[in-house]
UniProtKB/TrEMBL annotation:
PANTHER family: FORMYLGLYCINE-GENERATING ENZYME, SULFATASE MODIFYING FACTOR 1, 2. This is SUMF1/EgtB/PvdO family nonheme iron enzyme. Keywords: Signal. InterPro entries: BACON, CTDL_fold, Ig-like_fold, Sulfatase_Mod_Factor_Kinase, SUMF_dom, SUMF_sf. It comes from Xiashengella succiniciproducens.
Length: 401
């Protein structure tokens, strides 16, 4: 069954014109990505600004750029030129209506629909005689998105890009502290839950795992999914999520994860994600004995929950220690190959015994992508058994653009 994404856009009325139970079945409802209801968005009562486009003399320019927020808007465009000009919009979210003002001045009211998705661009092309002016419209993305699959919701926040110092020179595996530039992206506010995993894949991953015998994971829909290998996440969950939504969801890079955990553009400077007090933001050895429902403790400045504690989280990068990045690098993705993948954030069994502990936002830990590794540290002994290393490991979702 082909499932397509619904992206409902709220079209602007222009002035002067038209004013958790177990199931083996696949989700039956179509996935929806939309902006959560915003009762504080009344919409424009008139054009928010007036722009003049001149076609004569030394002031003529053949291009311009207009930057807009995500909410619906309207701009009054006055053209200083001879009669007979034309204007054409490149996208259906840009609506044009002729305008006749005082003293016979002619122009346009350009209306822009609310953006319910990621940032987008369009153009308005003006022609007058043998001259052309192209106005590029850059509209920012919605600050929040909501994914709904089979009635299960996952909220995302826009993490605006910026620069930060990645790593910690006091940690051998995190040396050396490096200046990193990160582009904007959307990140899920919580770790992926049992309910969302089941809604996407049709089942939960615990049935064949000895470490979860006796656990009632099907009765804990709002707990983070765990016991999932990097391989399972990337070969089962994300391909199916992309098939259903036709959107390129993925794991965060290690740089994206650390930038977001530290508050992004707000640069909180906390030891843990959102606080210097572990119990305020993280489920850990001192305040629980198992993973807990997501989103119950304090979030960080971006509105992200549980980036410290609860379950550790997969990143997309291969592990290498220390970092091998040039200062000022943009959007690093780690080494091209490796044997272990990165996990971040620590889990509910961790405590601050030595140093800052694994819930520290700069701490990084490697696990083989398939999760099964030598129980004795890969000693080389012929009798060394294999142990499952991911019983407390989950992940969260990123949407980049």
């Amino acid at each position: 069954m082909k499932i397509r994404l619904l992206l409902p856009f709220l079209l602007l009325g222009l002035i002067g014109i038209a004013s958790c139970s177990k199931s083996s079945e696949k989700p039956k409802d179509k996935p929806v990505v939309e902006v959560p209801d915003d009762p504080d968005d009344p919409g424009p009562t008139g054009p928010s600004q007036t722009l003049i486009i001149r076609f004569g003399g030394d002031s003529y320019q053949n291009s311009s750029t207009l930057e807009l927020g995500y909410r619906k808007d309207a701009i009054l465009l006055i053209l200083e030129t001879e009669p007979g000009w034309t204007a054409t919009a490149s996208a259906d979210w840009i609506k044009l209506a002729s305008y006749e003002g005082e003293a016979g001045k002619m122009g346009l009211i350009a209306g822009f629909a609310k953006n319910d998705f990621i940032p987008r661009s369009g153009t308005i092309t003006f022609k007058s005689g043998n001259k052309t002016h192209i106005m590029t419209i850059d509209q920012s993305g919605a600050p929040q998105l909501r994914l709904t699959i089979d009635g299960i919701q996952a909220d995302f926040v826009l993490v605006e890009g910026g620069n930060f110092l990645m790593g910690d020179s006091d940690l051998p595996e995190s040396r050396y502290r490096t200046s990193v530039n990160v582009s904007s992206f959307y990140m899920a506010t919580t770790e992926t839950t049992n309910a969302l995993w089941e809604a996407v894949t049709g089942s939960l991953p615990y049935d064949d795992l000895e470490d979860f015998e006796g656990h009632m994971e099907y009765d804990r829909p709002n707990h983070p999914v765990s016991g999932v290998s990097w391989t399972l996440v990337n070969e089962i969950f994300f391909p199916e999520l992309r098939r259903q939504t036709e959107i390129n969801f993925r794991l965060p890079t290690e740089a994206e994860w650390e930038y977001a955990a530290g508050g992004g553009k707000y640069k909180e400077g906390f030891i843990y994600s959102g606080s210097n007090t572990l119990n305020d933001v993280a489920w850990n050895y001192r305040n629980c004995d198992d993973k807990q429902e997501v989103g119950q403790l304090m979030p960080n400045a971006l509105g992200l929950y549980d980036m410290s504690g609860n379950v550790s989280e997969w990143c997309s990068d291969w592990y290498i220690a220390p970092y091998q990045m040039e200062d000022g690098v943009s959007d690093p993705t780690g080494p091209a190959t490796g044997t272990h993948k990165i996990t971040r954030g620590g889990d509910f069994s961790e405590q601050e015994l030595f140093g800052l502990g694994t819930c520290y936002i700069r701490y990084r830990y490697p696990i083989v992508p398939g999760c099964y590794d030598g129980c004795w540290g890969n000693s080389g002994h012929p009798d060394e058994p294999e142990c499952f290393r991911c019983d407390k490991t989950g992940f969260r979702i990123v949407l980049a653009f």
